[in-house]
Amino acid sequence: VSSSSSSGLGADAGLEIRTRSVEQTLVPLVSQITTLINHKDKPKRSDKTLQAIQRVGQAVNLAVGRFVTVGEAIANENHELKEEMSVACIEARRAGETIAQLTDVASLDHPESDSHITIFTDKTGVVKAARLLLSSVTKVLVLADRIVIKQIITSRNKVLATMEQLEKVSSFQEFVQIFSQFGNEMVEFAHLTGDRQNDLKDEKKKARMAASRAVLEKCTMMLLTASKTCLRHPDCESARINKDGVFHRMRLALEQVIEIVTDSRPNGENEMAPISIYSGIKEFKNKVEGLRENLYFLSKENLSTMLEVILEHTEDFTDSAYTSHEHREHILELSKQAKMELEQLVSVWMQAQNQKTKDLMEDLEVAILKTCQCMNELKREVHSAATSLAADLLKYHTDHMVLKALKITGVEGNLEAVAEYTCKLSEQKEQLVEMCRLLRHVSGTEPLEITCIHAEDTFQVTGPQIISAAETLALHPSSKIAKENLEVFCEAWESQLSDMSLLLREINDVFEGRRGEKRVYLSLPRPGKHNANLKALKPVKLDTEEQAKIAKLGLELHLLTSDVDSETEKWEDQENEIVQHGQGMSSMAYSMYLFTRGEGLLKTTQDLFHQAEIFATEGTKLASALHAFSDQVHKDDKPLLLLEAEKLISVCKQLQITAKASAQGKSATFTKVDACILKTRNVMTLLCQLLPLCFKLLRKNKAGNGCLKPAPPWKEDRIRTGTNAHTPERRAETLGIKSLENHVTNMTFLESK
């Protein structure tokens, strides 16, 4: 747990915490213990301080007692974990009692006296008890988490067993009965894995889980129609191939889910994802720029090898039949230039190692800048090549002409025409697979890379399945079930093409400096969710002239969102509530900027006004977090922080009033749009000043003397809201972790005021 490191605290190094629920459950405990450990540096020990220490110590002991009671109940229900869980519970209870004894200081006249061992006389004892407590509580949580994993494995095994029955059935009646059971089991599996996906800390694993669950969701319907087609036409080879393909894909997806959940690979294999050009360039530039700080930390051979690997990957573009001649020439030219720039850099770098003169260091700086600029241009060129190809292909295939032709010729029983169109679909599949491979190189984040790989697999597998389904229909043109089966596979293809458009937009967002998460979709208005008194208003869009008028303001807003993103990325703790609210506001402001260009998911002025209201509410929540944070900073810094928080509340209220004000007619509506964007810009300007201030105060606070402070309330809020969001109450007690969370979270109810 990161927040424990500053006090020398830490859970057992052998216990890896993989989920947010376990990590966040430990946050209040770490905060309270850190409060106790840091008390000694405070110069004055008033009665109020002594009472606060005692209250915190007692709170820790009481909460640990309740926590252990739940842990012991879980142990009794799960015999395979009973022994380990019982030992951890005993250790936790003992450590909690020790902390309570050492903090029993409020009633003593001289707490520093050696006659009574307390937190003041035995600092080592407190640290030791704290370490034992964190280690044992973490162990209980990780053991409880194993129960969740066991539930997912058990659920997967039930699904697999039922799938085997479905594969062997020979009558419709038997199939319907078993498929009904299969459907219920898949729903349970979807719930369990959905909760797990949301709980995973590793974004890469989360993306892999999402991809596997998407396969299972789509394949469930495919399995139904493919199996029914096979039962209706038992002697049809293409129907059997079609069905076998679905079952095989589902088994692979189920296996991948278990690999992610148990963090294991078959036969002990390591997962080796191919390096993308984007990540290769990023790493290369980091190494080059590192020469400013240290001329000796890597070898010239190391840098040369890194560049060679990047340039080898550019061959995926230059060798592709779908890369335009212009892009191919530019990529080859930039590759040649990159080699030359690196040669020049290495030459100056070697001289600087021998003789560190001012002129040589200036030459080195120039060589570093020119090398990085060349790599940026190469990155821009491959990005342009991949995204322009993707945009062209997606536009070309939006009419789904080949799929429509396959359906028509299949129903006609025209085997020759079906064969002709299956060739065209195979060509289309190759184009789309190549598009996914090139997009992966420029996707910018590991989750998006995984999404590209998933899309490539989907096209690779779905193409042949459509062909076998079309062949079956052509052989049995009057078969309703064969027709329905082809429809299902065609819909899966169309759905993946639609997903590619969203993926392309996200890749472009990352390239433009946006963060890699799907943050643009935060709190967007939904149909029927608007305020009741607004339903009568006709939603309108901005016309071209109005977009031109507001373009400058929109651009300013865009630049501010980039500044805010840069500031939030500096924070080590991306789960900090100040960072979360800042990122959320930046995301919403970006969607408002897109509206000024006639793009994005805000389609009408009413969408914009609704988004502005939510943006203002988010700003007010940030102000509350700032008030909470002010209790953690030095008293000399507190007035400035509170003043800035009040300014934020004021500008957010102004925006709220503007967004809610009525506007009748085209001119009044545009004036309101202009005012909303302007006031959103004002909020973002203030946010750009606030975030660096908070970051500075946080670092100052960490480097300071660490006197007694209460646990940060914003972390308490995240425990109460964040963890609940992913775990339905109906299953709270069965999951193990949830009931333990509640008891540790209750420790934060004390305020040391």
TrEMBL record:
Gene3D superfamilies to which the protein is assigned, alphabetical: Alpha-catenin/vinculin-like (1.20.120.230)
Molecular function GO terms recorded: actin filament binding; cadherin binding
Keywords assigned: Cytoplasm
Primary localisation category: cytoplasm
Gene Ontology terms: cellular component: cytoplasm
InterPro entries noted in UniProt: Alpha-catenin/vinculin-like_sf, Alpha_catenin, CTNNAL1, Vinculin/catenin
Biological processes per GO annotation: cell adhesion; Rho protein signal transduction
Subcellular location, record wording: Cytoplasm
Pfam families, alphabetized: Vinculin
PANTHER family associated with the record: ALPHA-CATULIN
Family named by the database record: Belongs to the vinculin/alpha-catenin family.
Protein name as annotated: Alpha-catulin
Organism name: Cephalopterus ornatus
Name of the coding gene: Ctnnal1
